[in-house]
UniProtKB/TrEMBL annotation:
Organism: Clostridium frigoriphilum
Record family assignment: Belongs to the MoeA family.
Phylogenetic lineage: Bacteria, Bacillati, Bacillota, Clostridia, Eubacteriales
Keyword list, A-Z: Magnesium, Metal-binding, Molybdenum, Molybdenum cofactor biosynthesis, Transferase
Protein name: Molybdopterin molybdenumtransferase
Record domain MoaB/Mog: where: 182-320
Amino acid sequence: MFNIELEKAIKLMVESIEEIKETEEIKLIEAGGRIIAEDIYAPMNNPPFDRSPLDGYALISEDTKGASKENMKKLTVVDCIFAGGYSEKVLQKGEAMRIMTGAKIPTGANCVIRQEKTNYGQNEVEIYEELSEYDNYCFTGEDIKKGELLVKKGELITYVHQGVISSMGISTIKVKAKPRIALIVTGDEVGMPGHQLKIGKIYDSNLHLIYSRLNEFGLRPVIAEIIGDSEEQVGKRICEIIQDVDLIITTGGVSVGQKDILHNVLQLIDANRIFWKVNLKPGTPAMYSLYKNKPILSLSGNPFAALTTFELLGKPVLAKLSGNKTLQPKQVTGTMEDEFNKPSMKRRFIRAYFNNGKVSLPKNKHSSGMLASMVGCNCLIDVHKGTTKLNKGDNVEVVLL
């Protein structure tokens, strides 16, 4: 297919691939940002016993009837219980036990008085407040009940999930395997940072740009390399790695110049091109193919174009492969704080900053080959085809980055 709309391109890609089925068991402490591959139910109550929510004295509520600062009640202190400990004694009328936050409430007690409402007595304590049954009392299973669903299969594990699961004594969980991604940057003109720049060369930005963005998603590429504009070398490399990866992302070589080699590479390896060119700017020449049922997403070599099409096309592919719905592009509405005076003959995405419903632009430098003005930006404005200009106060749709 040729010259298709963005939404059609996304639909074709997502329908052509399947979510990764493989799972792995990993340590809970390392599971943040992963997708849970199983429902997790509570194997126990939490707390596992009735416990005190504060430092004070465990006692029987009837013993405090009528107690106040002016009419104090005195109780005999028969034990002291620290967090992590317990008392084997059964509390009787007229008795109290010193107790610390989190400690197991002793048998016979039905409430806890905070220490500030006493004289902090050690052998005998003065009570200055009347309590009702179960005042300052945390029941077994008050937070989590045994058998309760804690985490549903397919959820993204957060630090809160990890804390809850850990409180159940669980140390390992089953998660979905991460997509194995290869990132290939093509171009004879591209040099690696750290090496002397030869005449006519430029330092790479695309490999570092997309590698780092993938890394932010917790998807560190298993292969990342720069290959010159050689159809044979690029084709050979794709053939070598295709069985070991779930997705190949390339940048460069997708337009119509003499060095735009990806078209011939796909023919050389007998890959199936699904579409070429998407009706948007920048990044129109984006191409998507399947080779041995593995997706190849080929993006423009211009840095901002590569970034834009990766955000718009790459993220839906990653969301489908990984099962991580949070990777889907998120679109919101904002109000322009600036003017954008260039007419948009086709659908266009421009860099911007979104804050509290307001959208502002970097100063000038909106070329697809320019990247520095993207620093500080956190969204792309979706400018409709045929828009002559954007005015201050206009409502616009933005894709959050």
